[in-house]
Amino acid sequence: MVKINKIYTRTGDDGTTGLVDGSRTAKHSARISAVGLVDEANSAIGLAVCAIEDDTHRALLIRIQNDLFDLGADIATPADDGDFAPKEMALRIAASQSQWLEHQIDALNEHLEPLNSFVLPGGSEAAARVHVARASARAAERAMTLLAGEAPTNPQAMTYMNRLSDFLFVMARVVNDNGRADVKWVPGANR
């Protein structure tokens, strides 16, 4: 279990931050940018949780928030040798976490009518908040792909982030009265 005794340490005053392996890196590095955007996505999901009334849907999102902390730890643990097997000091996203997301996507999507147009982010407040979380997840995924171009990155972490935005899209439709309150895009409507 994590124990935090003091909030400020002053060790980052020089513009660096510590990684799980004890090394330090610039706060503006691709690795820390990815960690930060995962945190933003997690915060956006937390905001969505506050607007969702269904306890089952809230529980799904809270489980994902936990997974995103795992993901942040994964990203903050360099693996120069490309070995992403879980170790004592390396919390890694596992295939089972992405598979769980896929199962949830399928279960939620089962009750939705197929789309015949793209959906605008909105409809209800809860759906709009989930769409903001989805867009944040996509931003985190872009940051992770940038990191993957510079350093070995857990492929399971990449898969997880890709599935997460799909899950959030489906969840937004579900909380939008199972898609009945979706606002459809009308191409060229305002020309």
Q: What's the SSE pattern?
A: EEHHHEHHE
Overall SS class? mainly alpha
Q: How would the global form be characterised?
A: elongated
**CATH architecture descriptor name:** Up-down Bundle
Q: Any overview of this molecule?
A:
With 191 residues, the chain is mainly alpha-helical. The chain has one domain: Hypothetical Protein Ta1238, Chain: A (Up-down Bundle). It is built from five helices and four strands. The strands form two sheets. Strands 1-2 form a two-stranded antiparallel sheet. It has a two-stranded antiparallel ribbon with strand order 3-4. Helix 1 (30-51) runs antiparallel to helix 4 (125-150) and helix 2 runs antiparallel to helix 5. The longest helix is centred in the C-terminal third of the chain and has 26 residues, at 125-150. The chain is elongated. The mean pLDDT is 90.
SSE inventory with pairings:
Layout: E1 16-18, E2 24-26, H1 30-51, H2 55-75, H3 95-109, E3 119-120, H4 125-150, H5 155-175, E4 183-184
Antiparallel strand pairs: 1-2, 3-4
Helix pairs in contact: 1-2, 1-4, 2-5, 3-5, 4-5
Labels describing this entry:
mainly alpha; Hypothetical Protein Ta1238, Chain: A; two-stranded antiparallel ribbon; 5 helices; 4 strands; 5% strand
What's this entry about, in short?
The protein is built from five helices and four strands. The protein is mainly α and 191 residues long.
